[in-house]
Design brief:
- The chain has one domain.
- The two termini are 19 Å apart.
- With 297 residues, the chain is an all-alpha fold.
- It contains 13 helices and no strands.
- Helix content is 82%, strand content 0%.
Length: 297
Amino acid sequence: MKKTISFICLVICTLIWGTTFVAQDTGMDYIGPFTFNSVRFFVGFLAVSPFVFLFEKKKINREIKSKKNHFFKLMLPVGVFLFLGTVFQQISLLYTDVANSAFFTIFYVPMVPIIVYFLFSERLHWSIWPSVFACIVGGYLLSDIGDVNIRFGDGLVLIGALFWALHIIYIGKIINQFDLPFFIALLQNLVVAALSFILVIIFEEINFSKIKLETVEILYAGVLSGGAAFALQLFGQRNISASPAAIVMSLEGVFAAISAWIILNQFLGLNNIMGCMLILGGVLLSQLAPIYEKNKL
């Protein structure tokens, strides 16, 4: 039952992330990528704050009292990897389209099990590898990447995918040791907002009248993606390890394509639909094969 709830949390999280690609793309019509990220994650910080005070205020000291150094040793890479992943992804949208960005972001799917297997020596269920392959092929069909040249923006997304993979791995580690999903979401939002603000000061200008023009996109990306989705990711990864969690989150590409089709009128052809089916198949295989084998025993 707990695993089912975690799976539902990850799917809803991924739905929000997928649709947020559109908000991220249109949210830079009047402001730069660093300004968008800084304001977006500060809004996410504000959105999560009430839940920390309501549900975790008394738990925080109890959970990290004797392991404060260890908590922040894990929290720091969580925040920094999220910052780097979002920065590369956001800048990439200036040079590439939503479909390409969604596709190359999916490359965190093979990166997670490779990192986990070779760096952390964790054993993986056999279903992970065919599921990863299905997700990559599905992402290829979904994005029509064969019809365009690899561009600078696509390279940026690939770099960002490495940091998304590391973020997923470290989220799994911290949530398994500290039952503070809202507090962790709060701190990582604050880290990304603060580091992005430093880049705003260096490379961009603070213009509140232009920020105001992006209110809808910022609220969607901040409250739903930065707040709700990252909290749901933490709840989801409580009972699902990093590699299968990454496969579930590859549905992000499916939701991005569907939302681009509905909102931006980008056509979904037969290849795109086949891509959606392959990713869905990969997700189902990674989740159901271990359950089937366990029940068989």
